[in-house]
Input
Amino acid sequence: MLVKRTPDLTYKDVTPKGFYMGRRNFLLGLLATGAAVEAWKRIPRVFAGRSTGTVPHLLSGVTRWPGSTTEAVTPANDVMHYNNYYEFGTSKSDPSQNAGDFVTYPWTVSVEGEVEKPRKFTIDEILKLAPLEERIYRHRCVEAWSIVVPWIGYSFNVLAKAVQPKPSAKFVAFQTYYNPGVMPWGSSAGIELPYVEGLRMDEAMHPLTLLCTGMYGETLPNQDGAPVRMVIPWKYGFKSIKSLVKIKFVKNQPSTTWNMENPYWYGFYSNVNPNVSRPRWSQKVEHRLGRGFFAAPIPTQMFNGYGDQVASMYAGMDLTKYY
Amino acid sequence: MNFLRSVLTSKWTKVVVFALCLVPLGLLLWKGFHNDLSLNPVEYVEHRTGDWILRFLCITLAITPLRKILHLPQLIRYRRMMGLFAFFYACLHFATWLGVDRYFEWSLILDDIGKRPFITVGFTGFVLMIPLAITSTAGWIRRLGGKRWQMLHRLVYFSAIAGVIHYYWQVKSDVRKPLEYAAIVALLLGWRVWSWFANRPKPGAARVKREEAVTAETA
Output
């Protein structure tokens, strides 16, 4: 029997000499292509077109609030580029890079729950509800860094009185805007979103509790919680919830984001308290941003130094239990 | 491959690798001089040095698997250097925390080490590296004897694990990066477990040898 075998390789199949000799160059070419693709991805969005989101503008008619701290104000640039806003990324520099396309005008906030006159407020209505004040507050993060910020706004109780809370309202629940479409980083934040916070009624009505619409003379930058946020200066920063869309007066203590994430580490109250440490950070001292590498940490004050005004609300409470 | 081997054994390669390992420190110093260590420079230096400890620990742990898999025994020449650089960045990391973050406030420092699990575990990982750095010299290998020296230096496995746990417990909620390190360390330690099982002398093989010896004696 004749076995006819066709050769499985012919001259046609021979790798061209040039290509064979150039295999190292081919690999280098692959590497170079990979590097170029990576570099392209990293080209700042400046070249890809301007950000399409809302940008801050000057606020006029702002009066000076007499209670401001006289401590040195943290440079605006620091406060705008060192943010915790997990919807826009978990690194401190992420939000200022990623929130550029966030549209924060027009905007409405729904105020509802145990109130006589539930209603929606546009951001323009909020800005006109009371004279805007510049209040320079210390702001202490649970991560043991702090800043001093000239916030702009007015006491939250102005807004609360406008909707007339019922006697049954014992707490206020706050909610941040959340849209995975404009906040794709939120899905890897490791916390449940939308971000929610809460205050006891007397805390919410305290004159220090600020409904904040600006800082450093302008409306809020997106990464700092535009267009409207809370600022509660005697509590750790995460209580000062950003980009509010819903405020609900409720009967029972509401769930709060970090408390749900780890109830042992983050309490509902989360008052600044150097005597109650957390498993992650000692709360005895803090690093003030903008002071440089070799600056000594400064001692953290009880209630962040606002004890004269707020301590009475917690009289008789065991603050190591209700931390 | 022969070219690669001669590169690996060259004295100059070692010098270049040594210089490369100092680049992260150089970058930190450069940024420090140009006031560019982010807005929270203490945290920034802690995070960058911390990253490099874990990277050097991973590189150190990768040397043995790589030299076995790639048949490049010459790689061993770099293991001590990599381990010592891990220790070097650990010293910088620890010193930054001790001196700049905690400002040598001993009450704060002891409180942190005792009460904050992520610091306890990180500190443990660092302390475990100290005897390894001390006994990294040829003289100590001789004094301890190869077997005992090797046993002692397996502590680096625990340092690497402690480092990953330290990182995992330090981040607040976004655990992607610590998990990447965890995966790499798990892979590198897993390879050791696998190769230990694979290279274990089979009980059958041992018996055959003994029988052979017996026959040889009786013959």
Observations:
- The CA atoms of residues 171 and 252 of chain A lie 6 Å apart.
- The two ends of chain A are 94 Å apart (CA to CA).
- The interface with chain B takes residues 78, 81-82, 86, 90, 92-93, 143, 145, 188-191, 261, 277, 279-282, 284-285, 287, 289-290, 292-294, 296-297 of chain A (CB under 8 Å).
- Chain A has one domain: 47-314.
